[in-house]
UniProtKB/TrEMBL annotation:
Protein's name in the database: TGF-beta family profile domain-containing protein
InterPro entries: Cystine-knot_cytokine, TGF-b_C, TGF-b_propeptide, TGF-beta-rel, TGFb_CS
Gene Ontology, cellular component aspect: extracellular space
Gene3D superfamilies the record matches: 2.60.120.970, Cystine-knot cytokines
Gene Ontology molecular function, alphabetical: cytokine activity; growth factor activity
Keyword Secreted recorded: yes
Organism this protein belongs to: Photinus pyralis (Common eastern firefly)
Annotated TGF-beta family profile domain residues: 203-331
UniProt family annotation: Belongs to the TGF-beta family.
Primary location recorded for the protein, binned into one broad class: secreted
Location in the cell: Secreted
Keywords annotated in UniProt: Disulfide bond, Growth factor, Secreted, Signal
Signal peptide segment: 1-23
Amino acid sequence: MGGHFWALIATWTFLCSIRVVLADESFEQELGLSAFPDVTKVNVSQDEYTRMMRTYLHTLRESMDNHSVPELQTFDAETITWHPKKKYVTRLGFSGVSMSSEMEIEQADLRILVSSFVDAPSPTIKIYQILSARRRRLLDEKVVYLSSTASKWCEFDVTSGVDSWLKGNRNLGIELQCAQCNNSVLQPLQATLSILVYTTPKRVRRSSPYNYEEGGRTDCINGEKRQKCCRHTMKVTFKDLKVPQISSIIQPKSYEAGFCKGRCPYNYNHATNHSRIQSLVHKLDRKAVPRVCCAPSKLAPLDVLRVDPYDYTKLNVEKWDNMKVLECACS
């Protein structure tokens, strides 16, 4: 009985693993990608990050028809200190971070270079904003994948902390905590803040060359009870999709994808002549032919900065086709 039970468990585990692999492959295929990198092996240097982030931002400026695009600013830690009584606590000082109140933060990442680590290859590191001598605020927490033979770069989201400095809170630095780490891991060889910031008042912007906020041709009108086919807003945040490989996307963290929904009454906003004919035939015989449906009629690509799937130390700027809905029609 016991042997049969464990055999069933082993079989179920094997089938589940196959299902996960197939799901990942399907996700790659649906996006038209050849591969995703192994996130446990990603190790992008600060020089490579800075170079390719600026290339990505330049690409955005060209594709967005001069709509506001942030600038990249980097600040190295001036001080790295260790808590005298707690070996698993390290403090980073960034007193040189100077920004005016007119600036606006898009994204702020703390990137640290940590030494090789044998004891626990995947410890959990917590990042805190220091508010006072006794108060801390958690900014980010993640499992990092270290190497037993080489130093590795790790990245953390500290946007809310840097934004609070911009709004007048005292800049007392950032604290790293890792109960599973030893001193060598929490003594970063290098620590850098990489900040995407709007240095001038930003104009209307979205991640496309179209200015939706001023009203697209098929954008939905707020307050309409029974909306006809129109474009609704839909913000997609990549980390919320719960697909491990998608964490290799560096930028954008999120984007406005949009979707189509609404009624398609007779002779309303047809996408093609075929949809007009289908609408007429449906009116004659509703059982034989379905009503036309609200669907995207114009799509746009998305510029993406992500880890090279074949060289985990490099970044690529890519254009992913058909990622954003621009207009909707009955089809």
